[in-house]
Please model this.
Amino acid sequence: MPKSMIEGVVPILVTPFFDDGSIDDESLERLIDFNIAAGVHGLGVALGSEIFKFTEAERQDIAVRVVQAVNGRVPVVMNTGANGTALGVHYARLAEEAGADALMIFPPSFFPVGADEIADYYRQIAKSVSIPLIMQDIPQAPISPSLALRIVESSPSASYIKVETLPVTTKVADMAKAAGDKLVIFGGAGGGYFIEELRRGARGTMPFCSQPAEFVAVWDLFNKGDEAGAMRVFESAFTALNRLSGQGGDIFYHVHKQLLVRRGVIRTAHVRSPTMTIDPLTQRELDAVIAQIQPEPVAF
Model:
């Protein structure tokens, strides 16, 4: 285990945009403060932040802005995964220079590669920086328990893994059984199986950032031994929203951004193109669920 372990609720920030698609820095700062005030244990910039739609300049700018706005209050995790080793090293160094506390890195996935190549990819990145690495197990490039152990043995700073391949609960259990105390395991995929993952050995989750207080409440109750109370909070806060978010495509961006707009945290729910179009019936369903969570809209 790392000496100073990151654990708990580490939401992935959405990126607030103006309607023209430019980044809304004021909304971003409000979103960071909203999450930290809720008691989160860290914040991340990753695929849930739409970084794959950023220019190179925007990618570095968002890293610097988030680190500055957080100002040391919680650890900051930056996703620096890439489809080339040299590019992964480049992104990793830039994120460390920006002040990130840890890096989340998915394996190359554009073309399939073998275990040797993936292990070397992590090894080269680990050698290039001095901060911890979080392996990201994604459907496009799964990381098996045996491969995760191989990576951490050759790259000790890769001491975390975020599990997101299905079935996530089984994968978390298998990873915990194989890794013992060699890895800190996080759940992902929006936090939809948070409690089940905790029961199986996860030490945190990286959900979306629209309901941070509710996720922190689940974490606190579970760690106090009140699993029934944690489940009550989870089901009342997340079940309906998760059902909408899981309908396919990138609807989850629209769901969480619209909730944050209604909560008065960000200015618009704009998602950068290309993105799915929300049909009128789904929008009515989304409006109803969001109104249950936030009965009265809050002005920005």
In short: The longest strand covers residues 133-137. The mean pLDDT is 96. The beta strands are 8-9, 43-45, 76-79, 102-105, 133-137, 160-163, 184-187, 204-205. Residues 8-227 form a domain with the TIM Barrel fold (CATH 3.20.20.70).
